[in-house]
Amino acid sequence: MPTPDDSPLSVSDVNQRARRALEQDVGEVWVEGELSGVSRPSSGHVYFTLKDERAQLRCALFRTRARFIAAPMRDGDRVKVRGQVSLFEPRGDYQLIVEAVRAAGEGELLAAYERLKARLAAEGVFTNARPLPFPPRHLLVLTSPTGAAIRDVLAVLAARWPLTQVTLIPVPVQGREAAPAMISALGLLNRQSALDASRDAILITRGGGSLEDLWAFNDEHLARAIFHSRLPVMAAVGHEVDTTLADFAADARAPTPSAGAEQLVPDRRERLHRLERLAERLTRAQRARLDTDAQRLDHLCARLRHPGEVLAARRQQLDQLEARLRRAMRARLDQERRRARHLHQRLALRSPDRLTDQAGQRLERATQRLHQAMPRALARHRERLGGVVRELQAVSPLAVLGRGYAILEDERGRVIRRAADTAPGERLEARLGEGRLALTVIRPLACDTGPHGETHAK
After folding, report:
1. Among 106, 140, 158, where does a domain finish?
2. In the predicted model, is pLDDT for residue 28 greater than 90?
3. What is the dihedral of CA 127, 133, 136, 138, to 10 degrees?
4. Taking 60 as the threshold, does the pLDDT of residue 155 lie above it?
5. Is the entire prediction scored with pTM above 0.90?
6. Are residues 121 and 74 located together in one domain of the fold?
């Protein structure tokens, strides 16, 4: 209802009435569209834009409902959402308070992006990995001259490494003209690099945005131009979550323009700090070396003496050595004299004349003992022999033969004891007390035994 001029409504009242009208008239509806600008802050809520070819609608999915959503909710996804049309009173933002989300098919842009990415990867367009000069002497930056990306890059380069020469190549980074302009600039820069060798790196960059805003960097021809570039290329497009085909085709990529500048050049302050530390180390090392050399010089000076003192010391040392040599020679001569006397005494004790005299004395004593012992030994042997002779004569058959008996032997020398052991005509030999007789047996006769037991043949 309109109000009189004297009682105007506050902004809060207007937004409140608008919210109530939207919630009552439209109510809860299902809306289908493509996701864009999905944001997940630390609060746990999810904010995004739902759009189609002609319009877009801001949406809010609060944390209490977001935990029950199974859909991945990525930029470019086509979804169906159920929610209450409302208005955020503090800012007057028209929005849809989402209660449920369902997948409604893949977004056309994202599907085209994935198909082109797979085809270029199969062709090897994403295989560049050439090292970029660190730091580059002359950096060529392809970006919008009015965007925040060039300001961030120049600020980082000026703070970290102002020695690098930077040339801005102004090109559009959004819209239909962006990709052809960047391709043309890449071709021109590569042709000029053959004439100017100091140009050694290219940085393609821009700030973040939606998938549509960054679509120029997903151009197939731009990716191929980056791949065929003679100069190494770094791509720093969008924010950390943004990834384009230009990033894959480049030799290196960075999540943001500032990060790309940081990767391209070293930190001047860190280098200065390092140089200061190295200078301090060098100063300490020089001081320590000087102190060591000074101490060594003092030690050498203390050891250094006048040549006359050295000669006097050497002369004294020579005299001492000469005295030691004389003492050693006298001691050695005395030792050799004692050893010679000892050997002489041993030789005197072992002299051949002395040994001959001793042997002669022993021979003379042995001869005397021999002459004295021989008569006694002969007498003992005579007495022993006489006893043996008497004993032999007592049992000798010759003694029996001396009393008239005889011993008969056959031709083989066997003693004949019985007449029956002979045969007529057999030749025998008779041994008498003196001499022998040759006999022939005529016939054996009977045997008679004598008074002393002798046998007599008849």
Report:
1. 106
2. no
3. -60
4. yes
5. no
6. no
